[in-house]
Every structure is written in structure tokens, then in C-alpha cells.
Specification:
The protein is α/β, with parallel strands linked by helices and 256 residues long. Helices cover 46% and strands 21% of the residues. Helix 10 links the parallel strand 8 and strand 9. The termini are far apart. The structure holds guanosine-5'-monophosphate (2 copies), manganese (II) ion and sodium ion. One guanosine-5'-monophosphate binds next to strand 6. This is Phytochrome-like protein cph2. It comes from Gimesia fumaroli.
Amino acid sequence: LRLEGDLRTAIAQNEFALFYQPIVSLESGKLEGLEALVRWEHPERGMISPDDFIPVAEETGLISAIGEWCLNEACRQFAEWKQTFGDDAPGFMHVNVSRRQLLDPKLTHTVRQVIEKHEIPPKQLHLEVTESLIMEDQKTFIPILKELRKIGIKVDMDDFGTGHSSLSCLHEFPLDVLKIDRSFVVNAKHVRDYAALLQAILTLADNLELQVVAEGITDTEQLILLQALGCEYGQGYLFSEPRLATEIQTLFGAHI
Ligand code: G
Ligand code: G
Ligand code: MN
Ligand code: NA
């Protein structure tokens, strides 16, 4: 496969870049955290989305090198921002992890090494894991997430609401944050039932003492609804698209 060969070269030549998207306090509009999102700048094809190359990286095992680079680069950049911007720097860095990364027995060790190297307080690093992945094999993934949380880092359930977890077993998952999938946010404006669903998710999260991030906020109406429902954090094009480090840092300390 062409992409596989190119991906090997990409690792050797470091053709990856991290983009960062703000996670914002919905009450104050303050930029509180960032999610790191990888991009591949292919020399001929241009920018390739992780949706297109992460699956290939997973299949071939190249994800371990790419994933480690992403984790290290996000933490390095985060530490640099803390140095430069002090109190205006974001308080949290979120990094996505995929299936094979979670199954790698060295992951806990790698994460501990990276945060120690960059002197990042563990509670400021979030790893995002999709709901559908956890649901695929709870017996395998729950102990892995527990191990990760023992380091003191936070675990987020990403794309929540699309992975068919039974709400009644959510309390058994070792989690800190629910990231509500953008399909709920998109629909809430048009379909009354979706606002009720959001309300139910927020009540549940509150009872389980989970923080909530609503994803995919694109307009003010959605923002106002989520504020009225008491949702603490949000993310989406309304605030900012994922952008390069040099661009995103212009938003630090601002209310967006
Ligand atoms: O940013 P974008 O919409 O293109 O991301 C597409 C998908 O790729 C998302 O599901 C996101 O979680 C995933 N993704 C983005 N960056 C990373 C990364 O660094 N590692 C892993 N494993 N997945 C990522
Ligand atoms: O699966 P995950 O939640 O990690 O994916 C994040 C992806 O969602 C990123 O690739 C990002 O580009 C995309 N994204 C972020 N905000 C918005 C938004 O407001 N609308 C849409 N359509 N996509 C978004
Ligand atoms: Mn994510
Ligand atoms: Na998501």
C-alpha cells in the first residue's frame, strides 16, 4: 500500500504537525485547555487528515511511533507555553489515543516518562478515548484506563453518545470527563428531544462527578442553550478551529 510506505517516510522525515483547538469555559468564554490534533503534511498530496492515516497507522503498527511523537510534542509545547505565558497559558492539554496505543503495555510507562521529562503536573494531561472503543471490550480497557489514572492523569470519554454505552454502567468506567459528541449539539437547536438528551447527560455527569465538554459548537444559539443547561466547557468552530501553535497562542488569556 502506497500510504503505508509514505507513512514510514513521514515518521523518518517528521512530516507531522500538531494543531490545537481551544476548550473554553462556557460561562466566561475563557480558553481553559487545548486539544492536540495531528495533521500530516504530505510533500505531494498536501494536508492529510488523521481520519485517513490513523487507521493505516493502526493496522501497520506505525501508530506507536506517531502516537509517541504526538504525546511528546503536545507536552513539550504545553510546557513551553507555561514558561512563556504563565497564568495566561492553558491549564490542560488533551491528547487523543487510539486502540492499539491503549493496548500497548508500555503506554503507562511512556506517559509517565513524557510528563516527567517536561515537568507537567499529571492532572493537567488528559487522554481522550472514544466511547465506542471502551464499549468494544470493557473487560480489557477498564483496567488499562485505571492504570493510566493511577499516574494522576485524566481520562476523557470522547464522542460520548455515539458508542452505545449503557448509561447505567457509566459509573463503572474510570473517567474524569465526558466529551459530548457534536451530533447532539448540532441537533439540539432543531429537535427538542436533543435538548432533553443533553439535559439528561448533564444531570448524569453531575451525579457521577464528571466534567463535561460539549463538542462541535458552531453558533450562538447552541452556546446559549448549553449555558442555560449548565454545561461547563465547550469546543467548536464558534470559538476556534484547530490551528497551528503560533496561531492559537494569540488567544491565550483572552475571552473568546
Ligand atoms: O482533527 P480532525 O477532525 O481531523 O480529527 C479526526 C479524528 O482523528 C478525530 O477522531 C481525532 O480524535 C483523531 N485524532 C486527531 N489527532 C489524533 C492523534 O494525535 N492521535 C490519535 N490517535 N487520533 C487523533
Ligand atoms: O473525535 P474527536 O472529537 O477527537 O474529533 C475532533 C475533530 O472534530 C477534529 O478533527 C476537529 O477538526 C473537529 N471539529 C472541531 N470542532 C468542530 C466543529 O465545530 N464542527 C465540526 N464539524 N467539526 C469540528
Ligand atoms: Mn478528541
Ligand atoms: Na470527539
